[in-house]
Amino acid sequence: MQRVPAVRARGIVKFFGDVIALDGVDIDIAEGHVHGLVGPNGAGKTTLLGLLLGLAAADSGTLEVLGRPVRRALALPDGVAGFVDGPGLYPALTARQNLVALASLRGDRKPGIDDALDTVGLIDVADDRVRGFSLGMRQRLGLAAALLTRPRLLVLDEPANGLDAAGTRQVHRVLSRLAADGASVVLSSHRMDDLTALCTEVSLLAAGRVVFSGPVSKLAAETGEVDYRLRTSDRAATRRLADQVPGVRVLPDDDLLQRQDAQALLVRGSTESVEGLVAHLVRAGVAVRELAPVVSPLESAYLALVGAEEDRVAVGVSTGDGHPMASTTG
Ligand SMILES: Nc1ncnc2c1ncn2[C@@H]1O[C@H](COP(=O)(O)OP(=O)(O)OP(=O)(O)O)[C@@H](O)[C@H]1O
């Protein structure tokens, strides 16, 4: 039997008045994956998540969620849970009472409330009123409420918002386990470290269009040149040797880098050319003490792809049908 994708969107367009929030979005989200949506402010991430949650309807295009077409009626599709713009909670009730209330609204008699509170690390404050909760605690309680419904598709807008490092790790564990059990998770984030640690697939949105969708490894591989911090036993020799390796450039000294480490150099190049430099250094007897990308390959790819798309929209490159030129979807 063919597996049904958790989400299949084709040519989704959504306007808010004159503003086009989604401009022909095609996306497939596979079962059992954590899929990240990334993109600059206003790219359309929340709008897309809202469509998956039935909070708004697309103006055109087709959307299937868990194998069923989503029609214009505004309703949460079966098997879907999550929230955008923060979870809807009752501030005057305790964490436990909130979950009891939500479960009884659904007529759920075996909600597993304590398990859900434990999973998100709120069992010790289960009887505290939500009014006194921090942003991170509210996010976790919203996640617990979503987990109670045993979703096959979990939709979250910036789930790490307000979470400390331990909380972030805990939420990552919960989401990864959910995906390992066969559910799908789609979330938006501005944090590349989160996305790299959590997602197997990402879609990059810019100006309402998908500029990349696919495995994180493929996005990272699309990065042309990356900036590396390079620390060796001989800075002057490294500079000299780098000039002899095609495709490698030593960048002008950066104030911050110099203050952090006066021995380091910034070099720019493709993975292959930087590997060539390392081989060259080793042959010349220069020890390589540190070689690390200044920003992650994912972030480099993000900056390059989003920058290119925004430039294209800004100059109004057109396909002749009034739309910006079709973007490359991987
Ligand atoms: N309810 C609304 N009314 C009017 N315009 C809206 C509404 N919701 C979104 N927009 C517009 O649609 C576009 C996409 O917004 P959206 O919130 O989806 O972006 P986003 O990628 O989630 O941004 P952010 O990273 O800032 O959360 C923006 O231009 C935004 O101003």
Automatic annotation (TrEMBL):
Residues 7-232 form the ABC transporter domain. Keywords: ATP-binding, Nucleotide-binding, Transport. Pfam families: ABC_tran. The keyword Nucleotide-binding applies. GO terms for molecular function: ATP binding; ATP hydrolysis activity. Belongs to the ABC transporter superfamily. This is ABC-2 type transport system ATP-binding protein.
